[in-house]
């Protein structure tokens, strides 16, 4: 119970604040943990619910806890206001990409049995869908109307395209299922989108840092990447896009619609709208990568850029890999202005996507668990994020800046410039820990001191030990630099 006399009565909420802070210091509450509900705390401390609410709101204002829609209040990793990531200063010119050898090593590290896979962005590993998808697979195998063992239409199964259209409808966009093309993951969607509008030697403006799968696709198509700086908090600024298209002959701009990989930045609706209108006025197609759109941590989902399109120059790419199972390899394209050419390309390059995967997904979506699963997954990912940030801050302190992702499942770490994360990556592999070195996220060497870590994992003692090993090796490397 809290101490009270007449004077203190007014400040009861301050005592609640002190108590929560004490619980954090003593380790009773850890980053990512849920605080007792308002009612529960009020009855434990024998004060009123409004007093607890006032205290929680103040703690939220201070950035100490976070309110989550319909879930309550959660302890955050300690505030990083002193140590925020800055927007990179880029003097970009179109650049040829070449990172193949290192990418192969990263994938080997990820797939090596027994390795701690901090290098892979697989959010569903944090909350497995295996049982539900296995049940759906069984139902799909017996559903002859979906022809799961046959060749299928190049643009995909109609019930799946209808489901994807409903997904857009819930964002206020009326998409015609006829304009949706089912692909082999977002990766194929991006590749087909690039082929549909650009040719070798053309310049594609991308975010920087940029997901390495996009850079590798640009490389494989012989196109050039023009890197535009991302703000860690706000994503791409329309002004930077305006400057880039006035200085270079940009054939297409590729952006993450809501949540970027690796920064986890969030593009606001105003900026998205401005970006679409700027590019459509200039006659430049916008390819949006919305693979992480459903994994937002704020109160609402960001809309697809397609929603703001007036002239049909937006090509939307997305996927079920981050929200159902990457192994199904099912993504999609929605591009009313390019449907015919994209359908032709899909047929030419992969004929169709697996009917068994599509049928499984249809059965899974019909099962009705998907939305609930997504809500739970977002909660688990947020808790993991806070735990990982807290542990890294404790172990590495001021020696590292850490992103504060607005969704998704990865953290971006920035060490002092002298750090070489390629070397750290090799040392970590020897310890059976896979991470993704920063150089992969640019066509240049500009992120050699950075690194991406995934919190898309089932949190357990093994992860904490792995992160401690990671921190020890990182500290040793930093110490050797200052000698
Ligand atoms: C930003 C981004 N876009 C696209 C993809 C590819 O997604 P998919 O597995 O559906 O091909 C990924 C996968 O990691 C990604 O992180």
Task: Give a quick precis of the structure.
With 483 residues, this protein is of the alpha/beta class. It has 16 helices and 16 strands.
Describe the protein's architecture and organization.
This protein is of the alpha/beta class and 483 residues long. The protein folds into 3 domains: 6-75, Orthogonal Bundle (Arc Repressor Mutant, subunit A); 81-88 and 375-482, Aspartate Aminotransferase, domain 1; 128-366, Aspartate Aminotransferase, domain 2 (3-Layer(aba) Sandwich), CATH 3.40.640. Helices cover 42% and strands 14% of the residues. It contains 16 helices and 16 strands. It has helices at residues 6-9, 12-25, 38-45, 49-61, 100-111, 130-141, 158-169, 185-197, 212-220, 238-247, 269-282, 339-350, 355-366, 370-396, 421-430, 461-482; strands spanning 65-68, 72-75, 116-117, 180-183, 203-208, 224-231, 235-236, 250-256, 286-289, 314-319, 331-334, 401-402, 410-414, 433-434, 436-437, 450-454. An 8-stranded mixed beta sheet has the order 4-11-10-9-8-5-6-7, with helices on both faces. Helix 6 packs across helix 13 and helix 14 (370-396) packs parallel to helix 16 (461-482). The longest helix is centred in the last third of the chain and has 27 residues, at 370-396. Bound molecules: pyridoxal-5'-phosphate.
């Amino acid at each position: 119970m809290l101490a009270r006399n007449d004077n203190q009565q007014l400040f009861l909420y301050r005592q609640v604040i002190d108590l929560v802070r004490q619980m954090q210091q003593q380790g009773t509450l850890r980053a990512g943990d849920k605080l007792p509900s308002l009612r529960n705390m009020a009855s434990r401390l024998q004060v009123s619910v409004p007093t607890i609410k006032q205290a929680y709101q103040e703690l939220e204002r201070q950035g100490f806890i976070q309110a989550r829609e319909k879930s309550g209040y959660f302890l955050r990793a300690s505030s990083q206001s002193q140590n925020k990531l800055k927007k990179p200063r880029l003097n970009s010119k179109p650049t040829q990409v070449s990172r193949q050898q290192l990418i192969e090593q990263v994938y080997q590290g990820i797939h090596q049995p027994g390795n701690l896979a901090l290098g892979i962005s697989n959010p569903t590993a944090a909350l497995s869908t295996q049982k539900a998808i296995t049940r759906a697979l069984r139902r799909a195998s017996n559903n002859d109307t979906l022809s799961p063992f046959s060749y299928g239409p190049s643009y995909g199964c109609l019930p799946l395209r209808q489901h994807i259209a409903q997904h857009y409808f819930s964002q206020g966009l009326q998409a015609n299922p006829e304009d949706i093309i089912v692909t082999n993951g977002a990766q194929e969607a991006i590749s087909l989108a690039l082929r549909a509008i650009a040719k070798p030697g053309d310049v594609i403006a991308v975010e920087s840092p940029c997901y390495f799968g996009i850079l590798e696709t640009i490389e494989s198509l012989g196109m050039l990447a023009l890197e535009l700086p991302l703000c860690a908090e706000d994503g791409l600024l329309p002004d930077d896009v305006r400057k880039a298209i006035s200085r270079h002959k940009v054939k297409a701009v590729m952006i993450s619609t809501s949540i970027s990989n690796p920064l986890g930045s969030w593009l606001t609706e105003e900026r998205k709208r401005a970006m679409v209108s700027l590019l459509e006025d200039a006659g430049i197609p916008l390819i949006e990568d919305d693979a992480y759109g459903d994994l937002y941590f704020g109160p609402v989902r960001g809309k697809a850029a397609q929603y703001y399109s007036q002239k049909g120059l937006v090509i939307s790419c997305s996927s079920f890999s981050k929200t159902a199972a990457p192994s199904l390899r099912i993504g999609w394209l929605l591009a009313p202005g390019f449907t015919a050419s994209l359908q032709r390309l899909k047929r030419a390059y992969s004929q169709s996507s697996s009917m068994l995967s599509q049928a499984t997904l249809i059965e899974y979506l019909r099962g009705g668990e998907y939305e609930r699963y997504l809500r739970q997954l977002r909660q688990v990912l947020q808790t993991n994020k806070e735990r990982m940030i807290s542990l890294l801050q404790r172990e590495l302190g001021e020696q590292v800046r850490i992103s504060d992702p607005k969704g998704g499942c990865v953290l971006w770490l920035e060490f002092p410039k002298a750090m070489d994360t390629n070397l750290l990556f090799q040392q970590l592999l020897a310890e059976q820990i896979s991470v993704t070195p920063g150089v992969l996220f640019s066509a240049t060497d500009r992120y050699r001191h950075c690194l991406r870590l995934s919190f898309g994992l089932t949190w357990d003692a093994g992860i904490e030990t792995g992160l401690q090993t990671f921190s020890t090796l990182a500290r040793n490397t930093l110490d050797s630099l200052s000698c």
